[in-house]
Amino acid sequence: MASTSDKVIISCAVTGSVHTPTMSEYLPLTPDEIAEQAIAAAEAGAAILHLHARDPRDGRPSSDPAVFDQFVPRIRDATDAVINITTGGSTRMTLEERLAYPLQAKPEMCSLNMGSMNFSIHPAARRVSEWKYDWEQAHVEGMEDLIFRNTFRDIKHILKVLGEDCGTRFEFECYDLGHLYNLAHFVDEGLIQGPLFIQSIYGILGGMGPDPENLVTMRSTADRLFGRDGYRFSILGAGRHQMRLLTMGAVMGGNVRVGLEDSLYLGKGQLAKTCAEQVQKIRRILEELSLEIATPDEARATLGLKGRHAVGF
Hints:
Layout: E1 10-13, H1 31-44, E2 48-51, E3 53-54, E4 61-62, H2 65-68, H3 72-78, E5 82-85, H4 95-105, E6 109-113, E7 117-118, H5 134-141, E8 147-148, H6 152-166, E9 169-174, H7 177-188, E10 196-202, H8 212-226, E11 231-237, H9 242-251, E12 255-258, E13 265-267, E14 270-271, H10 275-288, H11 296-303
């Protein structure tokens, strides 16, 4: 039997802020839909649930704590999964908006993008001829002229007000090799202590491409910077690259992230109807490779989380 630290942690990012309702009828938009999909993903084997909010009227990204409050406590009551709240929000949100609910909820874990970057899916607008809601086209096409901002000062602020003050630990989202060096800077400054949970991300325009060689480069660089025992590695493959990169990463000793935030599909030309379908698929692949799946409490122990009793919701 594998030790707790050898088991694969499955994260599930339920809805995100990038995809729009027109792109998939199955994308969860309302608090009920987000809660239902998150709970089903946990039942399928996801130890960590990565959560964004959307305006229930039209599905646009929302930072409103009142919207989060309609589904986060419900998920907490129905599962023992680790609840991970975004601090990324969307490229159109201010830092204050992005932190509004995390500072209220004081969750066990939050995501933390390790640098400012171009982040866009604007080419996807060319494949859409008719939009369901008026806001969608401008949202997608407008990404061409936007950046996601997380300066060194922004990151330092998040580490202080959420990490130090609330005891929240982080899913360090690294979209490029330089983000690993940014993370190492904060470790060297004494602002971050291990164990680190590094989410390496491939296939987003503006970040690293989905080439398998990039996964190897990220893994070997993280080994040099932090030591193999100083961090837990996880893999996020965007869109059609999801399952093949996750499988490769798991074979290399990594953890995995699925969910409709990252990919709308289950297979070629087949929309995923739920996040749970993606969890079930990657779980089957991992178990066929004789890899064991971590429970939420095993993920807590591996990542040094404060526990569900210590959150603010």
